[in-house]
Input
Amino acid sequence: MGKKKEKITYIDDGRTLADMSNVGGRRLSKRHPARPRPEAKEVWKTYWAAVKMMFMPMLVVVVGLCIVYMIAYFIFSVM
Output
């Protein structure tokens, strides 16, 4: 007629979900040497490349916010 549901029993063995002590696999830190730190010149170049890439979109957003503020200011100052 109807299937009987299996009753599940949970047993607390004291381990947490973050217990990764029995997980195997290769460890990258032992097989591969650490990468050398980039020089300050390389870091500076990367920083300025990111700033140049974000400058125009930031300028458009700031100008847009100024225009919206001016429109709202003129609308509410007339009332």
Summary: The CA atoms of residues 16 and 22 lie 12 Å apart. Residues 40-78 form the longest helix (39 residues). The chain has two helices and no strands.
